[in-house]
Amino acid sequence: MAFNIKQNNTSPSLQAILKDGSGTVINLTGASVRINMKAVGGTGLKVNSAMTIVNATGGIIQYDWQSGDTDTVGSYALEFEVTYADGSLETFPNSKNLSVTVVKELS
User: Where are the domains of the chain?
Assistant: First the structure.
């Protein structure tokens, strides 16, 4: 998944369906999800925030961008970290990072 957003925009929201390696949708009932995003080649996280679970049994999550999340133009790596009800952690996707590009605004 590649996601592009203009600099300083907070819309559209980022939405994803979490699936395991075999393509089975992850049941998020009782879980919480965080988004982690950092600049490619960077050191610290640009975004580390709670996400909304839109449909727990359908594995659908959403992040509504906050002011400051997209203020810096560049390429970013992104992952979703799930904490299940039993306290165990799983990161999606587990075989690569997703990419987000913040595109320079004209004004």
Answer: 2-99
